Structures are given as structure tokens and as C-alpha cells.
Automatic annotation (TrEMBL):
PANTHER family: PROTEIN CBG26694, PROTEIN NYNRIN-LIKE. Residues 352-409 are annotated as: Disordered. Gene3D superfamilies: 1.10.340.70, Ribonuclease H-like superfamily/Ribonuclease H. It is an enzyme of class 2 (transferase). It comes from Vanessa tameamea (Kamehameha butterfly). Transmembrane segments: none annotated. PROSITE patterns: INTEGRASE (PS50994). Residues 352-372 have a biased composition (Basic and acidic residues). Residues 118-246 form the Integrase catalytic domain. The lineage of its organism: Eukaryota, Metazoa, Ecdysozoa, Arthropoda, Hexapoda. This is RNA-directed DNA polymerase. Its EC number is 2.7.7.49. Pfam families: Integrase_H2C2, rve.
Amino acid sequence: MYGYVLHGWPPAVGKEYNAYFRRKENICFDQGCLLWGYIIIIPRTLQNAILKEIHDGHPGIVKMKQIARNYVWWATIDADIERAVRDCGACLAVRPEPPPAPLHSWPWPVEPWSRLHVDYLGPFNNKYYLVSSTSAANLISILRKIFARFGLPKRIISDNGPLFTSAEVATYFQGNGIGHTLTAPYHPASNGAAENAVRSVKRALKKASLGNEDEDTALNRFLFSYRNTEHSTTGRDPSVALLGRRLRGRLSLLRRDTDERIRDRIIASELRRDAPLRVVAPGDSVLIRDYSRRNRKWAEGVVLDRSSPVSYSVKTSDGQIHKRHVDQIMCDKNRKSRFSLTKIEACDRPRLSVKAEDGSEAREPREMDELANRSSPEKSPSSSTDQTSPVAPVDHVRRQAAEQCLQKK
Ligand SMILES: [Zn+2]
């Protein structure tokens, strides 16, 4: 396959490549992966691992195919998914699916999260879901947590359960401007949306208990896959409908996102650009900011290595290793005496600038003070130091950016 894609397809291929051959116009090679459009083509050796990942939470054949369609493809994927479900004891045990409760035709909500259908599940294995104890206070506390994340809905639809009809819950809804509709007694289908959700969750929990999985983990895995796959009624992923984006899952790792690629490039270019500025190197004696509660601001140490463009590991004289940003480090060699440490903060800021051209002692970088002065209107801006300052060009650019920022304010 790699050969065909990189060096051109022959006029005809073996049977096992036919499905790929038909798509050859849209198959390309990117960062070591074969892509069909935006979908990754999974090589045979990894197909089982991917199947296992898609099967996570036992979403069933239909959902598994939907999940797969968003991320991965190979010629026999549909058949493989069907086989995986057929071979799964937990999936098999809870089939066939009961017919869904018919949905009472509630008007289609215009905004997300405006009408919520609420129901509780249980007891299932002696546990209630949504409520951990059947008290109104507990129900309110759980709803409050949900609303803190997503906001108050305009209306809540629930059945006539004693919790939902309690005065406490009524007061809570009223106080928060939430309308409450109780569905007709003995007619659970009026709250069909919630009933169906409860039924799906129950099925997931049953599968979990059959597979000896932890119920909480199974529930959350099920919810994750439920929220991230197309809903049969709305045709949209619940996460997209509510949050406007698909949730990042493990399958997302298959696709290296563009942001990350751009970030990597920026870091690489900063590394190149900033290279001359880095004044400390492994083995240098330095002073680093001391955050222990001893009464001193700086501690002596030796640079061990650089872990990122701006951070270093430094070993202090007591043998401890500290991580420091380059702004928290200064060169030790120009220190006048061992006992000037306490004055350093005032007169000798961490230096990013290099030594003056004449080789004399490095001058005090004053950019920060100058900037601070400029932000206060009563002091006139001094321009004299700008042109003569021996700071490296990058500092100059940074300073300009900072100045522009201050002007905007
Ligand atoms: Zn299964």
C-alpha cells in the first residue's frame, strides 16, 4: 500500500487491495500515515487494537460504526466490527434491544440546554443513578452541580416521582427561574427521551456487570462514547449540540492536530531565534532564585542541563536540584563578593542581555524599570538608552511589543 501510494498505482491490483484501489484518488500519505481523506487507514497489525478501542463501553454495532467513521477505516472494518460484537459475551447477553419508548412530540428546542428531561435510574444493583439517596435535598444538590457546569435550563420535564413533586424541589426550581412540567401519571412514554436514555444506560451497566467491569468506569465510558457519537434522532453528536465541539478522546490521538504542529514549529523557530540569548550553559556557576523560607533571595548553584528553551536544572550547594526559568537565574561570575547577595535584587536583575562590547562588566539591564516608568504618565519617557543599549535584537522586539501593549492601555 505504501509503495502504491508513494510510487503510483498499477492498472490493476490484487483482490485484497480492491477497496483501496477504488479510493485511490483520495488516499494520500501524511506524517507516516495513510489517509483516506481525513480518515486514517489502519494497517492490519493495529486493526485489533483499534477495534478494542472502538468497542470500549460496548456501544453496539451501529454506534461502533459511527465512531469508526469519524476516525479510522480499513477495507473490512464493517465486518470486523460486527464480528467483534458477535464475539463479545456482554454485548450478546443484552441483545435484542427493546423497542425505544415512543417519543411524545415535544416541540424542538431552539437553544441547547433549554429543556431538560430528567429521570432517575434504579435501583440497579442496589444503587440509584442521578440520586445517591432518594431525598429531595440530594436531588437538588446533584442538579446544582450539573447547572453549575452548563447553566440553568429554562424547563425541566420529569415524571411524577415523589422527589420531583416535593415542595423543596418546587421552591428550588422557582427560585432559579426553571419551569417544571410533570408528565402524565402512569404514562412514562411522555418523558420518552429520558426513559430511552435510562434504558441505554441500564444496558451499558448490565454489560459492565456481565463483563465484571467497574460500574462507575463503565458508566463514564458509555457516556463518553454516547456523547461523542451521532444521536439517532437529532443526527448530531450530543457533545457538538451542547458544546459545539466533539470531545477529545483516545481515538483523537490518531490524528495529530494542526494546532500542535504549528506550536511545534513556533517553538522550533524560537529556539533558533533565541539561541544567542541563552547565557547559561551546563557547568556554569549561577545564582538562582531561592524560594526556601531562609532569609535570602538567591542561592548559588551549578547548571546541570536545559530542559526547555527557557528552563534549566540547577544543583545548589546543598546538593538539591531545582528547576528554574531563565529569568530566575543569573550568572555568578560578575558577583562582587559573596556577601552582596541581599542587594542583588535591587541592582542586578537576572540578565538576558550579553556582556557589553568592551568586555567590561555586564551592564544592568534596565528594560523592566524603563517600561515600568513609561506606564506612569507623570514620568517623561526617556529614549536615550534605546539606541545605545547593547541588548540583543530579540529583547528589542519584545520590548517594542510590551510598549505597544502599554500604549493600548
Ligand atoms: Zn461488547
